Amino acid sequence: MRRSGWLSLVFGALVGTLVLVLLATTVTAPSNATRADCVRLVTSSSTEKGDLIAELAERYNNTGRTFDGGRCAKVEAYKKTSGATLDLIADGWNDIDERQPEPQVWMPSSSLWLDLLRQRGKGERIRTGPKTSLATSPMVIAMPEPMAKAMGWPERTLGWGDVLEVNRNGGWASKGAAYAQWGNFTLGKDNPRRSTSGLAATIATYFAATGGDYGKIETAETVRFVRGIEASVAYYSDDSVAFLKTLYDEDRKKPTPYISAMAMQEQMVYLYNRGVPTGDPAQLKGNPVAPLRPLVAVHPREGTMLIDHPFLTTANASPEQQAAAKDFYDFLLEAAQQDRFRELGFRDPGGSGNPELAKVVGTQQTQEPPKIGVPTGEQIQKMLDGWEYTQRRGRILLVLDLSGSMNEPFDKNRKDKPYSESRIALLKPAIRKQLEYLHPEDEVGLWTFSDRYEEKMPIGKVKNVRGPMLDLVENLTPKGDTALYETVMAANEKMRREFDPNLINAVVFLTDGENTEAGTKEQVLQNVDAERLDNSVRIFTMAYGAQADSRVLDEIAQKSKARSYQAIDPYGIDKMFVNVFSNF
Q1: Selection from 504, 501, 575 nearest residue 188 by Cα
Q2: What are residue 543's phi and psi, to 5 degrees?
Q3: If you count Cβ atoms within 10 Å of the first and of the last residue's Cβ in the chain, which end, N or C, has fewer?
Q4: Cα dihedral sign for 411, 417, 422, 427?
């Protein structure tokens, strides 16, 4: 062999070896998730994109990415409704019940929450900087397709005025005899103090009522319009994702749509129609089943609000965490991650969607839809204050377990307070606090149960019964067994007999145990089954402590088209009550 050929072979072998070494180094280099020297970066995202942010955070951690000359970051992703996070940031962050650490990055659904934080005088808790947006999604009126068509879609552009008109003219029967079976127009809406969809819908309603002149927020005509819209609300959820899950579950069970419309982001309509009502991107890989009745994303003709999904750095972030936050933000704006946002139904930061989005949500409007004027923080606060009086009022029967187990420690295996305190002692202050929060025009009554149920206070206006009920709560004494099934059915039947179509009729049912008396679960579920939202009672259940039969309580709430809540830790009791009563 010639010398030059031999040298070429040697050189080639060396190069090949070097490439293999480099590849091996790349493959075996530790990801940020396993390194101990990376900057810890805690993020809190709104719930509808929480699973997506967690997925992208894991992708970021696994890249081995560095910044600032070799620093690395390890991102921890959590999710919580935007309104709940606002409260925590404003109040100094005390989230012991969920063990969620204070974040250095907040990704709410909308910059509106930052405006409200500033309105509270706590704007300094978020670092100032250039306006950021990870993605956008317009707020829409999402309607089951048969109902949208009954109102003239797609030939006719619909809006909030049409929602108001249906119920003012006698419900769905006004659209034709064939639609009378749908009853009244029922609207699903989140609580605007906790959810971006609820807040944006409230602002959009005021915009429609005032013609865009926010100086007219408090006029009688505006209040009448907004109150008319709110009168159609079934109940105020604390999270649209839970509402969508119920809608999806009912889609194949009954011929009548579960609800007439919901105020939500277009992106959530996209995922629902793809068969993923919970918003979990992982479900798209499992060939999800699309609903029989897809939702139509109606952009209100009066205008809509573009939800801007900002990326905000909190004031508690150290210089290292600020640098890490910037690197994570830059990562989220890269093409691969932005493509993932598009795959899940979001529009880009400029407001443009894609043809697939338009096809799935029932609109050809892929460009940025007409936007309404964004109110100031002061104007938003006025709307929220006004909503306290325009919202649909609740008629609530509070049912409390007074069986003997309520005298036992919250956790028998712990000797430290508050775990060692009795369940009834821990419960009383939470009830007192919530009764103080109820609006004076709401209606509330009190039952207790052990071996049998007993009416302690007839239902009346909060302003008239709050004082006596507080005294009753203070003197509650547990004893006996747990007639759970019998009490649920009796409470449901009472509320159905006294049903008021102008109010949200609900039972709030709390227990720390399981049924020990007569009856079967099947009887209860048949008794509470809600055939239609405008003539049935919501039963919101609360599993109090680890011994509560949470599975049965979940089924009862689901069957009545309500929500179930749980407090397995003393620190979660107040939060449980706040979440339950935010539905009213």
Answers
A1: 504
A2: -90, 115
A3: N
A4: negative
d(C-alpha 206, C-alpha 566), whole Å: 35
Per the CB < 8 A criterion, the answer to whether 441 and 429 are in contact is no
pTM, two decimal places: 0.76
Report in angstroms the alpha-carbon separations of 166 from 160, 170, 186, 189: 10, 7, 10, 17
Phi-psi map region of 211: left, alpha, beta (phi>0 left; psi -120 to 50 alpha):
left
Alpha-carbon distance of 53 to 341, in angstroms, equals: 10
CB 437 within 8 A of CB 513: no
Q: Which two tokens stand for residue 168?
A: 């003012």
Q: Map 548-576 to HEC letters.
A: CCHHHHHHHHHHCCCCEEEECCHHHHHHH
Distance in angstroms (rounded) separating the CA atoms of residues 136 and 98? 29
Least confident of 129-143, 324-338, 362-376, 523-537: 362-376
pLDDT band with cut points at 50, 70 and 90 for residue 96? low
Task: Give the number of residues written for the chain.
Answer: 584
C-alpha dist (Å) from residue 515 to 46, 153, 327, 548, 561:
37, 49, 54, 10, 22
What is the distance between the alpha carbons of residues 30 and 167, in angstroms, rounded to a whole number?
61
The DSSP 8-state label assigned to residue 238 in this structure reads S
The DSSP result for 127-188, as a single string, is ---S---S-BEEEEEEEEHHHHHHTTTTTS---HHHHHHHHHTTGGGGG-GGGGGG-S--EE
Q: How far apart, in whole angstroms, are the C-alpha atoms of residue 136 and residue 350?
A: 7
Token readout for 219 is 């006029």
Q: What span, in angstroms and rounded, lies between the C-alpha atoms of 235 and 504?
A: 6
Contact 182, 256 (CB under 8 A): yes
| Amino acid letter for position 304 | T
